[in-house]
Amino acid sequence: MRDFSHFVQLLDTTNSTNKKVLYLRGYFDRATDEDKITAIALLSGRRPKRSVPTAMLRKWAAEESEIPDWLFEDSYHVVGDLAETIALLLPPGKDTSDQKLFDWLIQLKELSTADDDQKRAFVTSAWKKLDKGGRFVFNKLITGGFRIGISQKLMVRALSAHTGIEENELAHRLMGKWSPFDTGFKELIYAEDEAAKRSRPYPFYLAYPLEDEKEASGPTQDWSAEFKWDGIRSQVIVRASELYIWSRGEELVTQSYPDLAFFTDILPDGTAIDGELVAWEDSRPLPFNRLQKRLNRKTTSAALIRKVPVAIVAYDLLEWNGKDIRGRPFQERRTLLKNLCEKSGHPQLIFSKEIEWEKWRELDDIRRNARNYNSEGIMLKKRDSVYKSGRRRGEWWKWKTDPMLADGVLLYAMRGKGRRTNLFTDYTFAAWDGDLLVPFAKAYSGLTDDEFRSVTSFVRRNTIERHGPVHVVKPQLVFEIAFEDIAPSSRHKSGLALRFPRMKRWRKDKPPEEATTLNELQALLKSRQ
After folding, report:
1. Residue 469 contacts residue 415 (beta carbons within 8 Å)
2. Which domain, by its residues, includes 425?
3. Which of 123, 223, 384, 453 is spaced 20 to 30 A from 178 at the CA atom?
4. Do 66 and 39 reside in the same domain of the chain?
5. Which of 348, 381, 400 delimits the end of a domain?
């Protein structure tokens, strides 16, 4: 733990990607195999589940620090991170623990079955024998929110430097369902586990948003265009007569979609398809909010399957006849994929057809009207591109349709987190329902730092009520809110839910009386149904 917390502290001293990789490689060079596999798990998103409620941690930390609860809470709102707040407020520790990172993780796993007194004894004992850096890491682990500023991509780069294994191979090995509690470092990185290999997906190739059309210029015949569907990016794999459906978040979701079990009958062994899992009915995609009813379910009823049928829209073919074909040109992979989908003839395996176009302006017009096809926009791919891993520029682009817009009145504000803890950056916006303002969206991105500072000054001068960290402000500021879609919602007071809302601009030219009305939002919803 001491070495790992030292590495975490080093990360805070630099913004240099190369230095971060160097520091992590140094940690791998020094660490035991058990700690290596633990660090890899943590940095690839395999975090331990929260074993102690944060309310308990806050209470215990305030008592150990001998400060009143209100002072702890005020400190938390200023710092913005619970793990760091606790580490800063506690009396100095003794740094007497020599336990490995792996051992700490084992104890945290076992803690979930302990009673409250046992949990408190363990937590407070840990705080006393760890220094500030060790406490910070421990608190991150116990709160289940372990994020420390180094991406999985950088972790793979450091691991490649440590092992001498190519990054693409390592990224592939780290995919799938594994745990540091039942998988060793050598087993994961060096050994050939046939069962794991059989189910393992490929790293996803992610497209960059196209914001400057010049980046995708050139002869139109060099580019393939298809619609971008709003679902769950997935890989569908059939090996040894077994079906595996993986989400982009590396979750095996096969059991949630028993209505796709027949894919073992229509796909030959040794097939891996990259595509979009979408709600689909009557030869067209359904809104994403319909698909949400089927997400994260351990069991799926026949009634729900009938209510929300799903399909796979196939984009790419990654494995064919048991061979990795990602290195072949995109056009060649697409031809194989088209033949495969047509041969299956099944309505739940849909080939993503190319858009017919000749000029860039013509394609732009299609993009602007993509919602008419229940699409989010267009995917552009170079016909000769190979299938890479991670997010890369130049050959794959997502060119989304223009967002929907509404003007909202700022109603509530909260402080941000991290470097924005001293600024009010989390906002709730309202629309008019007659003479009443009804909240309809929350947003925290889209403004410059100078604009956030200006709004913060306004909030401090114009707060009329406080409810914990929430400041109710005078309804005077108007902001243009951009969002991707709108859907009915019984969970929100407005009866509406916006998809990916963010602030597009501060409407200093518009008085609050001219902001969007609830009727206008409902009309927008009706146009989408």
Report:
1. yes
2. 404-528
3. 123
4. yes
5. 400
387 and 275, same domain (yes or no): yes
State the Cα–Cα distance between residues 143 and 129, nearest whole angstrom: 19
Statement to judge: residues 381 and 410 lie in one domain: no
- In terms of pLDDT, which residue wins out, 76 or 506? 506
Structure tokens at 387: 């299938």
pLDDT tens-digit readout, 477-491 = 999 999 988 988 888
* 136 and 215, same domain (yes or no): no
In this structure, what are the phi and psi dihedrals at residue 240, rounded to the nearest 5 degrees? Answer: 50, 40
Mean per-residue pLDDT, 195-210: 86
| Percentage of residues of the chain with pLDDT beyond 70 | 98
Same domain, residue pair 302 and 436: no
| CA nearest to 214, candidates 467, 399, 488 | 399
At 420, list the tokens: 């924005």
The C-alpha atoms of residue 511 and residue 516 are separated, in whole angstroms, by 11
Strands 496-499 vs 485-488: parallel, antiparallel or unpaired: antiparallel
Question: 475, 409 in Cβ contact below 8 A?
Answer: yes
pTM over 0.85: no
d(C-alpha 62, C-alpha 65), whole Å: 5
Per-residue pLDDT, 214: 67
pLDDT tens for 44-55 read 877 777 888 889
Tokens found for residue 193: 């586990």
Q: Which helix (H) or strand (E) holds 274?
A: strand 271-281
Residues 252 and 271 in one domain: yes
330 by Cβ neighbours in 10 Å (0-12 / 13-18 / 19+) ranks as: buried
Total count of residues recorded for the chain:
529
What single-letter DSSP state applies at residue 293?
Answer: G
Asked if 345 and 375 sit in the same domain, the reply is yes
Lowest mean pLDDT among 78-82, 223-227, 305-309, 400-404: 78-82
Kindly give, in sequence order, each residue whose CB lies less than 8 Å from that of residue 85, ignoring residues fewer than 6 positions away: 61, 72, 75, 76, 79
Domain CATH code at residue 256: 3.30.470.30
Domain stop point among 400, 427, 447: 400
**Helix, strand or coil for residue 105?**
helix
Tell whether 111 and 211 lie within a shared domain: no
Provide the pLDDT for residue 196.
67
